[in-house]
Amino acid sequence: MIETEKKQERVLLVGVALQGEVNFDSSLLELASLAKTAGAEVVGSYSQKREGYDSKTFIGSGKLDEIAAQIDCDEIDTLIVNNRLTPRQNLNLERILGIKVIDRMQLILDIFAMRARSHEGRMQVHLAQLRYLLPRLGGQGIMLSRQAGGIGSRGPGESQLELNRRSIRKQIHEIEQQLKKVEKNRKVVRDKRLQSGVFKIGLIGYTNAGKSTIMNVLTQTSQYAADELFATLDATTKQFKLQEHFQVTLTDTVGFIQDLPTELVSSFKSTLEENRHMDLLLHVIDASDENHALHERVVLDILKDLDMADIPCLTLYNKSDLVANVTPTQIPHVLISAKDPSANEILQEILLDKIKDLAEPFRLRIPLSKAYQFHQISPFLLIEKRDYVDDEEELSGFVMLANHWRLEAFYD
Q1: What's the CA angle centered on 411, arms 408 and 412, to 5 degrees?
Q2: How many CA atoms lie within 13 A of 128 on its CB side?
Q3: Facing residues of 205 across strands?
Q4: 96: which strand partners?
Q5: Beta strands in 170-269 (DSSP E)
Q6: What is d(CA 201, CA 216) in angstroms, rounded to the nearest whole number?
Q7: How does DSSP assign 295-355, residue by residue?
Q8: Alpha helices in 197-231 (DSSP H)
Q9: CB under 8 Å, gap of 24 or more: what pairs does 164-170 form?
Q10: Residue 412's CB: how many other CB atoms inside 10 A?
């Protein structure tokens, strides 16, 4: 009988809490969610308080003995460490324990490899994994001789793990060149979008905060949305209208997370920079998550690192129906549930108010002889009032400063 069902990987988690570390428990819980997202069965977890990480094995010898005992008893396949391991630590742990050992960074990279759907996304993940792998080619441990696949081995493929440094560097160079071409094409599209004058909104937030659901509500489309980490990796832009004519684009990008691997920040820079050119950011926060205050800080810190902290931002505390009390810390903010039947109406009203704050008022008289030209400027105007006086149409409302020149043709 041929076995067709893939065996679920059994894993142990381990983390070291340094003195003064305040987010350790939430980080370890998040590691468990990441492991489950990668398809693993979490059998148990270990934690240890130390003044510093052991330079050879990351954790102390006593805790290592406990872990080794459980590995033998419970047929553990993999140990996942809630920190970035040095190549030496990784190799020593695999030699001592006799099983595969990966760290938090490699686990996140693995999930990205599993989630990436577009050609660009797969190339970016491939590049990040190769950059992670390069300094780890010095040993001959389990990590470099995996033949059975599993968590931590998706993406480049089994053969990639056996390539020497020169081959890895060559591949990195080739992918970087391909991504430069992709970025040039992306820049052309982005420049056209900028020149179009359409109001641009970017969705940002911690992973699984509900960004894709918000996008579906606003655009009345079916972008993939699920209660899982990193459901969306590739930037997606959709267009919709506010009021009768005003056009808006809404862009959804990858969610943020604590300790985002530096390899991913670099590889996904072009994707994350889609938000750099937005007129408004919608920061979506899962209000029902007990760690949402921490998630807020993570997102704001990453925005600061990407030099995007000055872009106007509106915070949406999503899933507010699942919690009794929410204590917002961001201003301006709105409490909302994307599952509410009236969510679309609420969100559109919120956006209209925010856009008016960012725009400037206008008053315009259009001679009926030029009325046929109105459709050319209507996508850029938030019209509050329309009246007909004699042979003219009087309009008043709001327009972004960058689009004010479009009205000049109608001024005397």
Answers
A1: 135
A2: 30
A3: 284
A4: none
A5: 199-205, 236-242, 246-252
A6: 14
A7: HHHHHHHHHHHTT-TTS-EEEEEE-GGG-S-----SSSEEE--TTSTTHHHHHHHHHHHHH
A8: 211-219
A9: 164/137, 165/134, 165/137, 168/130, 168/133, 168/134, 168/137, 169/134
A10: 4
Q: In whole angstroms, how far apart are CA 34 and each of 3, 14, 42, 131, 158? A: 27, 13, 10, 21, 22
* H or E segment and range at residue 81: strand 78-81
Both tokens assigned to 7: 């065996």
pLDDT in the model for residue 412:
56
State how beta strands 199-205 and 333-335 pair: unpaired
Number of other residues whose CB lies within 10 A of the CB of residue 92: 21
User: Residue 79: its pLDDT value, please?
Assistant: 96
> What three-state secondary structure class fits 258?
coil
CA atoms within 13 A on the CB side of 59: 26
Residues 333-379: tens digit of each pLDDT:
889 888 888 999 999 999 999 999 999 999 988 887 777 777 888 89
Helix 165-196 to helix 119-133 angle, to the nearest 10 degrees?
Answer: 140
Instruction: pLDDT band for 160, please (50, 70, 90 cuts).
Output: very low
User: What is the rounded CA–CA span in Å between residue 395 and residue 381?
Assistant: 10
Work out the angle between the directed axes of helices 343-358 and 211-219 (0-180°, nearest 10).
90
Q: Are strands 333-335 and 313-318 parallel, antiparallel or unpaired?
A: parallel
DSSP letter for each residue of 138-174:
T--SGGGS--S--TT--SS-GGGGG--HHHHHHHHHH
Mean pLDDT across 252-258: 79
Q: Is the four-CA dihedral 34, 35, 40, 41 of positive or negative sign?
A: negative
pLDDT for position 5: 57
Cis before 135? omega within 30: no
Reduce the DSSP state of residue 393 to 3 states and report it: strand
Sheet with 199-205, edge to edge strand ranges:
236-242, 246-252, 199-205, 280-286, 313-318, 333-335
